[in-house]
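Final report, closing paragraph on structural work. Over the funding period we assembled a curated collection of sequence-structure pairs, and we close with a single example.
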Amino acid sequence: MGVQKKRRMGLQAIRTTVKLIWAETDAYTRRKLVQSFVFLVGFSALGALTPVVYKLLIDGLSGHRAVRAYLTPLGLIAAFVLFQFLMRFCGELRNLVHGQALQRLNRRLSLRLFQHVFGLPLEYHLNRKTGAIGEILGQGLNGCHILLQHLVFTFLPVVFEFLATAVVLVNLGMRKYLLLLTVSGIAYGVVFARGARLITAPSAAVATAQIDAHSRLTDSLINYETVKFFGSERQIGQRFDNTMAHVESTFRGLLRIQTWNGLIVVTIFSASLAIALGLAGHDALRGLLTVGDFVLINTYVVRLVQPLESIGYAARDIAQGLGYLQNMLALLAELPETDGGARSANGSPVRGELAFEHVSLVYGTSRRVLTDVSFIAPPGQTLAIVGISGSGKSSLIRLLFRLYEPSSGRILLDGRPIADMTLHDLRAAIAIVPQDTVLFNDTIGANICFGKNDATPEEIRGAARLARLDTLIESFPGGYDTPVGERGLKLSGGEKQRVAIARAALKQPRIFVFDEATSSLDSRTERDILQNLAEISKSCTTLVIAHRLSTVVHADKILVLNHGSLVEHGTHAALLETGGHYAQLWHAQQGSRRATQDGASSIVSARA
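Its predicted structure, as stored:
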């Protein structure tokens, strides 16, 4: 990639970040930033004038008549101390208001990024790395902080102080020292422009390596049970160490560039200081400068050359921050889910009539999942969807929730295409009990009412009773305030599934979706739950996805999918009579059940 292209990309990233920051500043943040700017001006002005007072004090104490004629040493000491106090006072107030603005901005940016991530389509989340998003957001916020921090605390103070110092030096007839400071500033600019250009690519590489390392760590922690089951602690540790070794080697290259850049900066500073003090000392010995003038020059060189140095370091940090920001900006460039101009139904009642009309779905460019699927689920009826694994059952549910859009055909709810409904209205009308229930690391009560945060305790307990969960919860010392642990691992698979059933029941939707909702339950609990599921969904349209055909024999209609196509539909009895695909699945499962029971009996007999 050419230098010009890299430079354009860097400038574009800065502009995009500044626009993002400005868009997320509310009235409070802007007011604090204005206050910070006022204190910044005061700090810079006092910083430029304090050395002048110090010069006058030195000249007064050394017996300079022009000073002693109208200022006493005591007055100069008082003025010097007052200037020092006011400068630091302005600095502290600037830190306060800037910190307040930064925290508010951090909060708003975090919310913006958080909402954007959850607004992204399912396809993005399926392709992401576990834990990578959190690291990308953290690095992006850090990059924003770097830009804002250096703008307020580095660039602007030095610019204002340099201008104030220039005015003082011109008025004192010290133009050659101003020229020296200007040349030093140009030298710093050249060095740091080169350093920033060299550091951008390694910074981006470091950011990517850190994201990969964080992703590896998070993935290992989430799956720690599997690691322990297979005794693979050493293996997973070696993988993580390999990732961190890549981070280390990438960082070494970055540090080498930073170090060489820093050595050049130190050389420029030392040369500037030596030339300035040499000239000032020579002029003082010739009587062209007073001792106070010599001190003034020394102070300005130290006060301005070092901040110029800090500007260079700021430029280097910003280049590194841009490396961090690139991943976040790429994330923000991902297109979120949209309603496509749909209008809200404004609380219009949903009857629950569901229709699929010639729906097909192709993943990517070639993987056909569903082909010309059509069916109608009248309000209040139970529709079962069965088929072997990979037949497209779960894809129907993802289409219903608009996690994917059909490649062709359409889906209607109460005669209205769901593509014309807002995502909020559509998903508010549907509740799902998934096959794999993952809970939040919160209380069991909070997990039940996740879909309805304004639920009363009585409603939560009622939903728990419907899911046959109330007796279990009451046996816990903490009751409904009992923590369920990371991903609900303190509960068994069946208990987690009953929490999911209670959560769906509490939502009181018009359409229930049960995706293998009793797969983790024992036979007795499954029978009880099925009765309750029939009770809570008797007035709703119900879709039941099942592998075990015995759980759907009472459905009003059974749809049989095979390789993405709807091959049969009808009642349980009618499908058995036809002797088709459903009948083959039914007899295979009955035979498998008998074979499993015979096999278990053989094992028991052999052990006896």
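The chain has three domains: 3-332, 350-428+541-608, 430-508. Strands lie at 354-363, 367-377, 382-386, 408-413, 416-417, 430-433, 511-515, 541-546, 557-562, 565-570. We thank the funder for supporting this effort.
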